[in-house]
Structures are given as structure tokens and as C-alpha cells.
From TrEMBL:
This is Zn(2)-C6 fungal-type domain-containing protein. The keyword Zinc applies. It comes from the Eukaryota. One of its GO terms (molecular function) is zinc ion binding.
Length: 583
């Protein structure tokens, strides 16, 4: 892994910890200690005995859960580095671990990851960096806006988070250079680094780390096959870490499609749908959702190559197989819910997880239904599923809302993002569609690698374009009928705006039907350089080397020319993130 160390935005260098945190031997010799654990490089290279002060708060060897009294004071008011590290870890253990991994993986994030800190300084630094960034998102100043727009000063706590992250990255780089990297630890730090970059709003860097993580998974599986990895870690790898990457692959859209086949290679046993708890239900559905994404990709490619309205019979048969598997999952899941209800009322976390699983199941059904045709109107068959997504996401968001009314900023678990995103783009029933956009506004600020504010902005843009197209089409057809009845030509010219401001009462009621030619699609996630013209987008995406690349959506739509009353197919690009400020 080689992520770039992040430093505070205004040029303050990230300084190493002072030697008072070094080993006893280096202190006695009055030399700078590199603080490597369990033995520093200076002592190891000279054959000296290396010892550290026992279990002082904030050292990597004291990563057991500290007293929660540390949370009584803000991170920025902590008196020194050791205390700030200890408090950040307390905040992680008490408030972050549950959210970053979700309730179904709480043992992994609350138990195993903190234990890994004991002998892995890079893991400790990454954890406390995540903790500080989580707390930053809970405060009015938002690090995402700082990173992207460079308009606000970095606070003390944000500076700590960036310094700890830089220290963690440096430690991993040193181990890589020495050839001392344990692949399992490397993969674990990669997961943590993805979280750090995402919390900073650095989506491109997070995606790069995600790709590197996929390479580490491939290498680690080779080690497991040759018996080089302890059985306990091999089980943890497949049961906890690989599912994280599968879930990230689903929300990364096209970014992970080429590697997804290899990622799913050992997950076939999960498709039996004999799960007995919510965690296994999630894993089975996640694998099915990932396979559906690959199937959708094949359908889109076949439709584009053939310029046909529907896919081949072979793909229709594969679709039928997916429907059977989705039905089997649904039957087993309903039995599981019945057994949970039989034990008593569901807990808050069970309510959240159940609602999210139902929403994701409905989303997978929708995607399986609509991907076999190039007609956008095929999604009208799924109104029942769209409404179910609204109901279940409302339930999940209400249950996960914190006392101050906000949502946790980030999670590696499934969330409302994908179901609401699909609904806001593919459902043309105005009431359901607007409900999806409104729920996206209430969603956690970060969904996978992307920001919910960007998703809301794009969904609203597409909705307004389609509804404006529909209004213009109806007006044109009405005028044509008048002309035909009168036997003459009308001199009326309807106006058309690319981003119209629609009246929200009568106009919305009149938009209950959006004809096929007014609909926008397909929509694809792409990357292009800032400021590049849309016509050059394909070349920019192919290069994938620019540091000024931004993620955006490429889509096709029909555009009306009011001068001659004709429609042409146009291809457009809309960035999902604001441009980064020049440095």
C-alpha cells in the first residue's frame, strides 16, 4: 500500500513524537528513538536490549479499553499527546466501533481490532485517527469541506488526526521497505486507511486503497492455500474482512467490477440461504447483490453491442435463476424474522438491520428486473418494491437517528444509500421519488466512498430534467393535436429549460407519467479531469492518471430544440464532487 500521508492543509509539517515516548535504552543513551515495537531499530541494529516503560496510557502496549472518564473533555482540550491519544481511543471504543462496522460486526471492531493495537503501532495510529475524524464529523466544522475547498483552518483535533494518520502510513511504508509486512496486518491497515480517507472526503484516494486491498486479498489467499496463515486468522479473513470489500465493491459501482469475480470466488457456500441469524442473512444477500451487479454489467454490454431492446434468451434464463435465488433468500429471511419475533420485541439494532436487509433485497429485485431491457420504462413494473424501500429506509433512519437528530457519519456495513439512490434515479412516480430524495438528505453524510449531498444534488438534477422533458413532450403533443384539428400550423413555441423550477402542486400532479423518450439513462459512474469538456471524457477516463480527476455521472437523455420542435439524443457529464482548490 502506498497512500500519500495527509498533513494539515496550511503547511504545518507532521512532527514525530518526542523521544520521551521512546525506549529506555535510547533515553539513557540520549539518542532519538524510532519507537518501533517491540524492539526499536536503533537497539536491534546495535544488539542492545530494548525495553519500553510499562503500560503508560497512550502507548501501543496499553490499548485495552481506557476509562470512559476521558470522554468528559473535548479532544482539543487534552493537555498532551499521550492524553489525547488515550482519549481518542476511548472515543473509538465507546462511540465509534459500533458505527464503523455496524452491529453485526461489533465483535470484530470492538474486540479484535483493539487487540491488534497491542503489537501493531500502525493499527493504533489509524484507529485513533478514525476516532478523531468521527468526532470532527459530530461537530459543526467539517473536515470534508476543509479537504476539498481549503477554505477553513484545521483545528487542533483535526491536526492530531492527520498527524496520527501520517505516522501510521509512515510506519507501514517502513515495514514494506524492510520486507517485514504481515499481509494480514497490511490488509487490516488498508481497511482502516480507507475509512480515514473517506472521512476526509478523499474519494479518489479511498478507491485507490480499495484496489490495493483487493490485491492484498489475492496474495493472502495464496498464503492461506499454502498453509502460511494461522487457521484463526484465515477464518477471520474470510468471515470479517472479505465481506467488507464485497460490500464496498457493490457501492463503488463500476470501479470494482473487473476484480469482483475473484473476490467472490470462495463465497459460493454462502448462497445456500440456510442462514440462522441476521449476520449470515446479510452475507448471503451481499454476495447475491454483488453477483447481480456483474449480471447487470453483462446485460448492459450485450444491449449496447446489439443495439437491441431486450437481452438474449440466455441472459433471460440467468435472470430467472436470480429471481429464484432472491425468492429463496426472502423465504428464509421471513422464517428468521418469525423466530426473532417469537423471542420478544426486536432490539433497536435488529430493527435497523432487518429494515436495511429488506431494502437491499428489494433493490436487488429491481436491478434484476430492469437490467434486461434498454427501455427505461421497464422500472414501472417495480412500484411496489420502490415503495417498500421508502418504508424500510424510513424505519432504519428513524431507528439509527442519534439524540441530536444526526446520523453516524460512516459505516462499512450496509446502509440506506444504494436503495435510495436506485429509487431516486429509476422510480418515476413523483411521490415515491421525492420521498427517496428527502430520505437521502437525512442519510449519513458518507455513503460508501461518496457523499450523500452529491447524491441528492445529482438525483434532483435528473428528476428535474426528466420532468421538464415530460412537460415539453405533452405540450408538443397537445399542440400537434390542435394543429391537426384546425388543419393549420400553430405559432406557439414552448419554452424549455435544462434546469427548470417546477411548480410543486399542479405541475407535480401532472407528472405522474413520464414517457420513455423523456427518461434519462443509462447512468454510469466515471472519472474525468476537472474542467475537461464532456466530448473528451472517454479519453480522460481511459488515461486514469490525472491528479485532478473527479468522479461524476455520465448519462444520456433526449433534448428538445424548441425552435424546430425536434428531439436529439445528447450525452452529458455531471461531477459528483466540488473541484479541489489549487495548492
Amino acid at each position: 500500500m502506498s497512500p500519500k500521508p495527509t498533513s494539515p492543509s496550511h503547511g504545518n509539517p507532521v512532527l514525530p513524537l518526542r523521544s520521551r515516548l521512546g525506549c529506555k535504552t535510547c533515553k539513557i543513551r540520549r539518542v532519538k528513538c524510532g519507537q518501533e515495537k517491540p524492539n526499536c531499530v536503533r537497539c536491534s541494529s546495535t544488539g542492545r536490549k530494548c525495553e519500553y516503560v510499562k503500560a503508560t496510557a497512550g502507548t501501543f502496549s496499553s490499548a485495552s479499553p481506557p476509562s470512559t472518564t476521558a470522554l468528559d473533555h473535548p479532544l482539543s482540550s487534552a493537555p498532551n499527546t499521550v492524553w489525547r491519544e488515550r482519549r481518542a481511543f476511548a472515543y473509538y471504543f465507546e462511540r465509534v466501533a459500533l458505527f464503523v462496522g455496524g452491529d453485526l460486526d461489533v465483535d470484530f471492531w470492538s474486540s479484535f481490532v483493539p487487540q491488534l493495537c497491542h503489537g501493531e503501532p500502525a493499527v493504533w495510529d489509524a484507529i485513533i485517527s478514525i476516532s478523531a475524524l468521527f468526532e470532527t464529523h459530530d461537530q459543526p466544522s467539517n473536515l470534508v469541506s476543509i479537504q476539498l475547498l481549503n477554505q477553513s483552518p484545521v483545528t487542533h483535533s483535526q491536526g492530531d488526526a492527520l498527524a496520527w494518520y501520517s505516522r501510521s502510513v509512515s510506519a507501514m511504508r517502513q515495514r514494506i521497505e524492510r520486507g517485514q509486512v504481515d499481509l494480514f496486518v497490511g490488509l487490516m491497515t488498508c481497511v482502516l486507511f480507507i475509512c480515514v480517507e473517506t472521512l476526509q472526503g478523499r474519494e479518489k484516494e479511498a478507491l485507490q486503497l480499495f484496489s490495493q486491498g483487493l490485491q492484498l486479498i489475492h496474495a493472502l489467499r495464496a498464503q492461506i492455500a499454502s498453509g502460511m496463515v494461522p487457521a484463526a486468522r484465515a477464518i477471520l479473513f474470510e468471515d470479517a474482512i472479505v465481506p467488507i470489500f464485497i460490500r464496498l465493491a457493490v457501492v463503488s459501482f463500476n470501479e470494482a467490477a473487473p476484480q469482483l469475480d475473484n473476490l467472490l470466488r470462495t463465497r459460493a457456500h454462502i448462497s445456500s440461504f440456510d442462514f440462522t441469524n441476521l449476520r449470515y442473512a446479510r452475507e448471503a444477500l451481499t454476495v447475491l447483490g454483488a453477483e447481480t451487479m456483474l449480471f447487470e454489467r453483462r446485460c448492459v454490454e450485450q444491449l449496447a453491442q446489439s443495439n437491441a431492446v431486450y437481452v438474449t434468451q440466455e441472459l433471460f434464463e440467468q435472470q430467472a435463476s436470480f429471481f429464484q435465488r432472491l425468492q429463496a433468500w426472502d423465504i428464509t429471511f421471513k422464517k428468521l424474522l418469525d423466530s426473532l419475533f417469537a423471542r420478544g420485541p426486536l432490539s433497536q439494532q435488529q430493527v435497523i438491520n432487518s429494515a436495511l436487509l429488506i431494502a437491499h433485497h428489494k433493490t436487488t429485485v429491481i436491478l434484476t428486473t430492469i437490467c434486461v431491457s434498454s427501455l427505461q420504462s421497464i422500472s414501472d413494473q417495480c412500484l411496489e418494491e420502490f415503495q417498500a424501500i421508502i418504508d424500510q429506509c424510513t424505519l432504519a433512519l428513524n431507528a439509527s437517528r442519534r439524540p441530536d437528530g444526526t446520523q453516524p457519519p460512516f459505516t462499512f456495513d450496509i446502509g440506506v444509500g444504494v436503495p435510495l439512490w436506485v429509487t431516486s434515479l429509476r422510480c418515476r412516480e413523483p411521490r415515491i421519488r421525492r420521498a427517496a430524495v428527502d430520505l437521502l438528505r437525512r442519510a449519513p453524510p458518507l455513503m460508501g466512498f461518496y457523499r450523500s449531498t452529491s447524491a441528492v444534488s445529482f438525483a434532483e438534477h435528473i428528476m428535474m430534467l426528466e420532468e421538464a422533458n415530460a412537460m415539453a413532450l405533452r405540450r408538443t403533443r397537445r399542440e400537434n393535436l390542435v394543429e391537426a384539428a384546425a388543419g393549420g400550423k400553430s405559432d406557439k413555441q414552448g419554452s424549455y429549460y435544462d434546469t427548470p423550477q417546477l411548480e410543486m402542486d399542479g405541475a407535480v400532479m401532472a407528472l405522474a407519467e413520464i414517457p420513455e423518450e423523456a427518461r434519462i439513462g443509462p447512468i454510469n459512474v466515471v472519472r474525468q479531469d476537472e474542467g475537461s469538456p464532456t466530448t473528451m471524457m472517454e479519453e480522460r477516463v481511459a488515461s486514469c492518471n490525472s491528479s485532478r480527476e473527479v468522479t461524476g455521472m455520465r448519462f444520456s437523455r433526449n433534448q428538445r430544440d424548441p425552435a424546430n420542435n425536434t428531439w436529439t439524443r445528447v450525452h452529458e457529464y455531471l461531477p459528483l464532487e466540488p473541484p479541489r482548490a489549487e495548492r
